[in-house]
Design brief:
Number of helices of chain B: 18
Strand content of chain A: under 5%
Distance between the termini of chain B: 68 Å
Order of helices and strands of chain B: HHHHHHHHHHHHEHHEHEHEHEEH
Shape of chain A: flat
Structural class of chain A: mainly alpha
Oligomer: heterodimer
Shape of chain B: globular
Structural class of chain B: alpha/beta
Strand content of chain B: 5-15%
Number of helices of chain A: 4
Radius of gyration of chain A: 18 Å
Largest sheet of chain B: 6 strands, parallel
C-alpha cells in the first residue's frame, strides 16, 4: 500500500471526526443552509480540475478538466451565494423592527 | 523563487483554506454567527483557487479562464433561485459536484503520464463509480423535485434484483480493471453502467423520502470528492470531501430516525406499495369541517396556537400568508409558535427556510422534541399541508406502515384545525385518523387562499 494512501487515510479519518463533531452541533433550523454551504466547500475540487485543464496534456483531458472547472466553480459561486441569502433571512424577534 | 519553494507556499495556502473550512462549519452552529461562517468559507475557497492558479504545472490558462467564466455564469443564477426551488437546486448542486469529481477521475485515468498501478486503478474506479451514480441519481432527484418526473415511486417486479445486478456489473468491471488496468475499453463501459445505476437507484424513491435521499446523495458527493483526494494525493480535497460526506451522512441518519426507517428500507423499500390493505377497510366516518369565519373565531379566542407547516404549505407557496396570520394573531396577544418535524418538506430544514423567507423570527420555530410536550396546553394546533407527520396511527396502530415514526402530537391539542385540499390520503397513501377525531375541524381549500381568508376575518389582511 503506498505511503501516500496511509497519510491520506489519517487525514480522512481525522477530518471525518472533526466534521461529525462540528456538524452535529448545527441546529436543525439551519440544515438547509448547512447543505448548501458544505456543497460550496466541496466544490474545492475545482483546484484539481484547474490543474487537469491547465496541464494541457491531451485534448480529451483538457476538455474533461474544463467541464469539471465549470461544474465545480458554478457550485462554489452558487453555493456561497445562496447560503448567504438564506442566512440573511434568519432573524430573531429582538432584531426584527 | 524555485519551484519547490513555490510548492510549499501553495501547500500552506491549502492548509489555511482547510482551517477556514472547518471554522466555516463551526460558525454555522448558531444563526447569529452563521453569516461569518459563509465569509470564512469564501475566503478559504478564494485563497485555494488563487493559489492553484500559480501552480507551476499549469501551461495554458485559456480553457481555465473560459471555464471559470462559464462556471460563474451558471453559478450566479443557481445562487439566486427562489426559496421554494431550494430542494431541486440542492439536488442539481449535488449533481454538479459529483459530475466534476467523476470527470477529474476519468481524466486522471486517461492522463497516461505515469502507468496506472493496480492500487491507483482501484481508487480511480471506485471514485468514478460513486461520482457517476451520484451525478445521475441527483439529476433524477432534481427532476422529481421539479415535478418534471413523477414524484410517486416508480416500481416494478424484480426491481431490486435488476438494480443490484447493474451495481454488481459496475463493480465487476472495476475489479477487471484492477486485475488488468490496460483493458482500456472496459473503463468507459464501467462509467456508463455506473451512470445507469444512479438512475435505477433514485427512480423508485418517492417524494416523501426526498429528505433522506437528498442527504444521502450529499454524502456520496462528499465522499467521491474525498476519494478523488486519495487519487490525486490532495489533502485539501480529502478534508473538504470528508466534511461534506460526514455532513450528508449525519443528515441522512437524522432523517431516517425521524421516519423510523433504515437506510436500506429507504433505498430498496419504495414507500406506497404496502398500504393497499389499509384502503380496503375504509368505513364511512364523520368529518367536521369549518369555514374561514369559524376558524378565525376559534383562533381569536385562543391563548396558545401552534402552527404545523408541511410540504403542502410549500406547494401552495402559502408562507407569506402564514406570516400575515402570525402577525394578526400576535397583535391580539396570542402566543404563536411553529412546530417543525425533521422530515417536513422535501429536504432537511426546508420549512425553516421558507418561514424565514416570510420573515418569521427563527426563535418561533420549534423542533419536534421540544414542542411535543406543549401540545396538551395548546388551544389550537393549525396544520397547514402536513399529513403523515401528524398521524396518530404512528403511535397507536401497529398495523400502520408508519407505526413507530416519531410524530408531532397535534391530536393532544384542545382543538386541531387541518387545512387540506380534500380528503385524499397523504403522499404515502395512509389514512389519517386525526381527521375523524371529534377535536378536529377540517378546513377544506387551498392553503394560501384559506389562510388569506382567515387573516381577512381577523382584520389583519390587505
Amino acid at each position: 500500500m503506498p505511503a501516500d494512501f496511509i497519510s491520506n487515510l489519517y487525514v480522512f479519518i481525522l477530518a471525518g471526526f472533526v466534521g461529525f463533531e462540528v456538524i452535529k452541533r448545527v441546529s436543525p433550523l439551519l440544515h438547509t443552509p448547512l447543505m448548501s454551504l458544505t456543497n460550496a466547500l466541496d466544490a474545492i475540487v475545482v483546484v484539481a480540475a484547474i490543474i487537469i485543464a491547465g496541464r494541457h496534456e491531451t485534448r480529451l483531458t483538457t476538455v474533461l478538466g474544463a467541464v469539471a472547472v465549470a461544474a465545480s466553480f458554478s457550485n462554489m459561486v452558487g453555493g456561497f451565494l445562496i447560503t448567504d441569502r438564506m442566512l440573511r433571512m434568519f432573524k430573531s424577534r429582538s432584531k426584527k423592527s | 523563487m524555485t519551484a519547490l519553494a513555490l510548492q510549499q507556499y501553495l501547500d500552506f495556502a491549502y492548509i489555511v483554506a482547510v482551517v477556514l473550512f472547518v471554522l466555516s462549519l463551526k460558525l454555522l452552529n448558531s444563526p447569529a454567527s452563521a453569516h461569518w461562517g459563509v465569509l470564512a468559507g469564501e475566503i478559504g475557497a478564494a485563497l485555494a483557487v488563487a493559489a492553484t492558479l500559480f501552480n507551476p504545472e499549469l501551461v495554458q490558462y485559456r480553457w481555465i479562464l473560459i471555464a471559470l467564466i462559464v462556471g460563474a455564469g451558471v453559478g450566479i443564477p443557481l445562487g439566486l433561485v427562489h426559496m421554494t426551488a431550494v430542494p431541486q437546486r440542492t439536488a442539481v448542486s449535488h449533481a454538479l459536484g459529483a459530475l466534476s469529481a467523476a470527470l477529474i477521475g476519468i481524466a486522471e485515468y486517461y492522463v497516461g503520464t505515469a502507468p496506472v498501478t493496480r492500487f491507483q486503478m482501484g481508487e480511480i474506479a471506485l471514485e468514478v463509480i460513486i461520482g457517476s451514480l451520484t451525478f445521475t441519481g441527483s439529476l433524477i432527484a432534481a427532476g422529481k423535485l421539479q415535478e418534471v418526473l413523477p414524484q410517486r415511486p416508480i416500481v416494478y417486479r424484480g426491481q431490486n434484483i435488476v438494480s443490484l445486478s447493474v451495481l454488481a456489473g459496475a463493480l465487476g468491471l472495476a475489479v477487471a480493471l484492477v486485475v488488468n488496468p490496460a483493458h482500456a475499453l472496459l473503463f468507459p463501459i464501467m462509467v456508463i453502467v455506473a451512470l445507469i445505476f444512479g438512475v435505477l437507484l433514485v427512480t423508485p424513491i418517492g417524494g416523501a423520502d426526498m429528505p433522506t435521499v437528498i442527504s444521502l446523495l450529499n454524502s456520496y458527493a462528499g465522499f467521491s470528492a474525498a476519494l478523488l483526494g486519495f487519487v490525486l494525493n490532495s489533502k485539501v480535497l480529502v478534508v473538504a470531501g470528508a466534511l461534506d460526506g460526514s455532513s450528508g451522512f449525519i443528515l441522512s441518519l437524522i432523517m431516517c430516525k425521524a421516519m423510523n426507517r433504515s437506510f436500506s428500507n429507504v433505498m430498496f423499500g419504495a414507500f406506497g406499495q404496502v398500504q393497499v390493505s389499509a384502503a380496503g377497510a375504509k368505513e364511512e366516518r364523520v368529518v367536521r369541517s369549518a369555514t374561514p369565519e369559524e376558524a378565525a373565531a376559534i383562533l381569536a379566542a385562543a391563548n396558545k396556537v401552534v402552527i404545523v407547516p408541511g410540504y403542502g404549505m410549500a406547494v401552495a407557496q402559502a408562507q407569506h400568508k402564514v406570516r400575515e396570520l402570525y402577525d394578526a394573531l400576535t397583535k391580539k396577544g396570542i402566543e404563536v409558535r411553529f412546530a417543525i418535524h425533521p422530515v417536513a418538506g422535501r429536504m432537511p430544514g426546508h420549512m425553516n427556510v421558507l418561514l424565514a423567507e416570510a420573515d418569521i423570527p427563527y426563535d418561533r420555530m420549534i423542533e419536534m422534541d421540544e414542542i411535543n410536550g406543549d401540545f396538551p396546553q395548546t388551544d389550537v394546533a393549525l396544520v397547514i399541508g402536513a399529513n403523515d407527520v401528524t398521524n396518530p396511527a404512528a403511535r397507536t396502530d401497529q398495523s400502520s406502515p408508519i407505526f413507530g415514526m416519531p410524530i408531532l402530537d397535534v391530536d393532544k391539542a384542545h382543538t386541531v384545525m387541518v387545512i387540506k385540499r380534500g380528503m385524499s390520503p397523504g403522499f404515502a397513501g395512509i389514512d389519517n385518523p386525526l381527521y375523524y377525531s371529534d377535536r378536529t375541524l377540517m378546513l377544506f381549500g387551498d392553503a394560501k387562499q384559506f389562510v388569506g381568508a382567515i387573516v381577512r376575518e381577523l382584520g389583519g389582511g390587505h
